[in-house]
Amino acid sequence: MGICWGSPVDNHTPSTTGHLSSVISQTTSQTTSSTISNISKNSQFSAASGDEVFPHGQILPSSNLREYSLAELKAATKNFRAEALLGEGGFGKVYKGWLEEKGLGRKGNSMVIAVKKLKSDSVQGIEEWQSEVGFLGRLSHPNLVKLLGYCWEDHELLLTYEFMQKGSLENHLFGRGSAVTPLGWDTRLKIAIGAARGLAFLHTSDKQVIYRDFKASNILLDGSYTAKLSDFGLAKLGPSESKSHLTTRVMGTHGYAAPEYVTTGHLYVKSDVYGFGVVLIEMLTGLRALDENRPTGQENLMDWIKPFLSERRKLKNVMDFRLEGKYPSRSAFQVAQLALQCIEQEQKNRPSMKEVVETLEQIETVNEKLIETGRNRASRLASNRNAHQPLHHNSPLHMKQYGGHANQTPPRCR
Fold it and tell me: What is the pLDDT of residues 22-58, one digit of tens each?
């Protein structure tokens, strides 16, 4: 089986890639409504999936997506003008738009949205559009980006999402310039936990969902840095109970795809865990999974970083310099150990995403206790300093000694 990877451009994350059929789809005779209905029926989800483990997530009994007209989305994005472009992936571009909300009883109220305009001239573009609608149209969780609606008109394929104010994790980790705010340790931990919860929700549904393209550019952040997984174009339903894996053509992003998937085409639920481990390491080090500008032999981060993660003394030498040393070394080392478990060569030796969430939450709890302890210690030190300060203000002794005038200047020593 051949493997086709996209080449990185300008040191950005390599684009999502895969085998593209030379046969362009000839089938769009069905109406959009019937297509959406068919996708929903074939999704094979049940409404009760995953509720016990993740009470905030659910699989909807049916899709509640809105159908937008092409005219609406053109108006929202000013005809997809270049200034509105937020980003570009392997199968389309994403634009920022303002959509007039209806039924609110007042004019001039608009909602900020993100509109993905997919390439409709390829089988892969159509498949990605259908996959997004099929999964995000039914899946609801605080750590999955919300799909608002869709458009299939005049051979145009579009998807409309909630707008994520802080952009992608990739931009915060690797972006440059004054507009990019470096992420502190606590924020990085919050993002890792949020992304892990989203992935765990997918893995624990009654029909396991394999995300298949976990990477920093697919983790979007809202105004409070809550992480949400986006781009379900490559997502697949997991194997049946009688099977351990799927066998499928190799698709994904070089540097994040699990080794067993790259070499054999065998896709396991824990293939996603490998990608999560790679992103954890990126968050620790501030280094890209794949960077052709690094010295020979260091282009692929996973090829050389492991020895630095296994010892606390070595870890500090590769921690992201933008943290400025402001992180608890114990917590950082624990995250590094978890990352090493996630990128184990054998998929069966990797933890489940449920176990990953539990571990990260324990690390966060200890981290919060350390912060609270530090605050209490600082408070006690400040109190002790104040207690030992000489009393120069309106004390009875002070007033008696200097004639009862509280504001009188003490006499000079001659």
Answer: 222 333 334 344 555 555 444 555 444 443 445 568 8
Architecture of domain 164-369: Orthogonal Bundle (1.10)
For CATH 3.30.200.20, list the domain ranges present in the chain: 36-163
117 is in an annotated binding site: yes
Choosing from 213, 231, 272, 320, the catalytic residue is 213
Q: What is the CATH number of domain 36-163?
A: 3.30.200.20
Task: For 358-388, write each residue's pLDDT tens digit.
Answer: 999 999 998 888 777 767 776 777 777 766 6
pTM, whole model, 2 decimals?
0.78
Helices 185-203, 271-285: crossing angle, 10 deg rounding: 170
213 assigned to active site: yes
Distance CA 280, CA 184 (A): 14
